[in-house]
Predict the structure.
Amino acid sequence: MIDWLRREQADPSVEIAGQAIPLAIRRHARATRMTMRLAPDGNEVRITMPRWGRTAEAIAFAHGKRDWLESQLRAMPARTPPVPAGAIAYRGERLTIDWESHHPRRPIITGGQLQIGGPVQSLESRLRRWLCQEALTLMQADLAHYCDLAGKPCPDLRLSRAQRRWGSCGPDGTIRMNWRLVQAPDHVRRSVVAHEVAHLVHFDHSPAFHALLGQLFEGDIAAANGWLKAHGRTLYATFS
């Protein structure tokens, strides 16, 4: 019994709809209670708890909420790969895929449509590469803007294929951004970039960090966070 408990606490998970979903348990200095949510791609259950909380309590909390977690998993959008006459999300808009073999291989946006040619068999991979390049161009401009406001040199930017994080700021200052944010509205993408730039000054989530973020970001942080909470899972529905 003791050995089983030790294994469970070392590699915690909860069974949902017949599959074991890992638990990511994080302690936060400002947390006053335990909160839980399903990762955007459904591959992880995230629990945030006060620093004094016990791992066993978090595990028990997740097991006690299995019905709710299962309902959240069922509500996740089904994967819909991009196909001719289908659609993809780009900067908060839905673009209809206008594929014809004679169209240019490089995508062109025109009148709510995305014209693209080339082999239909490689359509998904080519659209993903295009979105990644668009993401890099937009995010580099965002990064330069917010670093200028923060009075910080522009660090290296890397695109991330992370399944669990929208952005991160490494100890060396390198910022990684989830490329899928190019599918979200501009203010949502920019809010995440601003968040990571604020971490270049305050490597925590202290009041000073939030005050700086409020100064850097021109929009409504709560609204941007709310969009990600409500719609973030949809950004994983088209591309694997």
Summary: Residues 123-150 form the longest helix (28 residues).
